[in-house]
Amino acid sequence: MRFNGFQIIKQGLTGNRGWQVHWRDPAPKDEYDIIVIGGGGHGLATAHYLSSVHGLTNVAVLEKGYLGGGNVGRNTTIVRANYMLPGNSEFYSHSLKLWEGLEEDLNYNVMHSQRGIINLFHNDGQRDAFARRGNAMVNQGDDAILLDTAGVREVLPYLNYDQTRFPIYGGLYHKRGGTARHDAVAWGFARAASGRGVDLIQNCEVTGVDIEAGKVAGVQTTRGAIKAKKIGMVVAGRSSQLAEMAGFRLPIESHVLQAFVTEGLKPCIDHVITYGMGHFYISQSDKGGLVFGGDLDMYSSYASRGNLPLVEHVAEAAVTLMPMISKAKMLRSWGGIMDMTPDGSFIMDKTHIEGLYVNCGWCYGGFKATPASGHCFAHLMATDTPHPAAEKHRLDRFVTGRHIMDEETTGAQHNLH
Question: Which residues contact 314 (CB under 8 A, 6 or more apart)?
């Protein structure tokens, strides 16, 4: 079934009883050409582009829980292309272009809203850094406007400009940035891939990777053994655990990143805003809740929950920046398991095991990367050559020192990212 205005009117007049299921729920076959491990946004996007761009449909996506139950449903939904360093800049620019055509591509409303993102800065050094970043963005073909204090006040009059510790010197305005509905993104990719014949297998946890003579042969799962010629690992914070099943280690640490939402409020925040105090960022959802987050919890964990000190710190940042929301009730919080690399950039590459590919280390950039991650990883798995937008994100950069990317300019150390 395709979504269109006629169907919406028809179903509305007939009690919405004619909608079809979004995707099939098949039993796993004995063998596939390609298995994608991980039914989150990146894994589902990979399946979509394998089928739509490369015509590969004998593909299975294996998810240990339910589709979209991991990080793709545990984030603050921000979409942006305001990266600076070579490798990251062109990749996220590619991703934003895919976002802008995604709803037409999927025939699904992912609620992509280009409401704009403003990164505030608070001293002369930050202003210079954001000026360099803005120039890099423009050179990449994206948009950036450097605002002074008066320019920010005109767009965001409700901020606290009188604070003394973190005065607002201005902001970098990225108009094409914004948000999208995270679960709708997962559903749209799942629906599109399933419609082309990809099997989406839920409640199917991978318990082992079969390797014969240096080549992948398949996987062991809670629903039986499944053979495959190629396997892609796209499991975010669980990447290091899955790699151990295949007998090697990844330069990954898993950390908790919390996010929060308030009760529904009348529209009051039109943009995405980031604040230099504690890596704070906030926007307002279409349901009225203020969605915001901050830093990592700074300890390794596989638990999708965080600690109270970080909750307090994020709340302090929110009220310092916007005293007007101090009486809003926090409705809920959640945590995503972040797979952090030493240099703060992702890994997308073939491994030393023939037929085994890895897509991990997304740090803070996972949701906004969803379309390009799937598009580039599908290209890698289908052609055995890296996509130009992701060619610098090789696994061996941590051994060779080539193409090391450090978005924060703090060095390739785990504890600094």
Answer: 258, 260, 278, 280, 292, 293, 294
- Closest by CA position to 366, among listed 137, 114, 70: 70
pLDDT, tens digit, 9 for 90 and up, residues 241-268: 999 999 999 999 999 999 999 999 999 9
CA pair distance 156, 136, nearest whole angstrom:
25
Q: Flag whether 395 is in a domain.
A: yes
Which strands, in side-by-side order, build the sheet including 272-275?
145-148, 170-174, 117-121, 272-275, 280-284, 290-300, 253-262, 330-340
Residues 310 and 402 in one domain: no
Same domain for 34 and 136: no
Residue 408 lies in a domain: yes
Residue found under tokens 């003394």: 164
Task: Return the CATH number at 295.
Answer: 3.30.9.10
pLDDT band at 9 (very low <50, low <70, confident <90, very high): very high
Q: Are 49 and 81 in contact (CB under 8 A)?
A: no
Same domain, yes or no: 38 and 152: no
Q: Residue 133 sits in which domain range?
A: 114-179+254-340
Domain match, 266 and 336 both: yes
Please state, in angstroms and rounded to a whole number, the distance separating the CA atoms of residues 332 and 297.
Answer: 17
Q: Residue 37: what are its φ and ψ, rounded to 5°?
A: -90, 115
pLDDT > 90? residue 2: no
Non-local CB neighbours of 380 within 8 Å, separated by 6+ positions: 348, 349, 350, 357, 386, 387, 390
How many domains are contained in the chain? 2
Structural contact between residues 345 and 363, judged by C-beta atoms closer than 8 angstroms:
yes
CATH number at residue 384: 3.50.50.60
User: Smallest Cα–Cα separation from 115: which of 247, 284, 241?
Assistant: 284
- What is the mean predicted confidence (pLDDT) over 96-121? 97
Question: Is residue 87 exposed (0-12), middle (13-18) or buried (19+ Cβ within 10 Å)?
Answer: buried
Torsion sign (Cα): 38, 39, 44, 47: positive
| Domain shared by 30 and 73, yes or no | yes
Domain stop point among 325, 340, 355: 340
Task: Locate the DSSP E strands across 202-301.
Answer: 206-212, 215-221, 224-233, 253-262, 272-275, 280-284, 290-300
Partnered with residue 227 across adjacent β-strands are 31, 218
Instruction: Give residue for tokens 């308030």.
Output: 262
Asked if the model's pLDDT at residue 409 lies above 60, the reply is: no
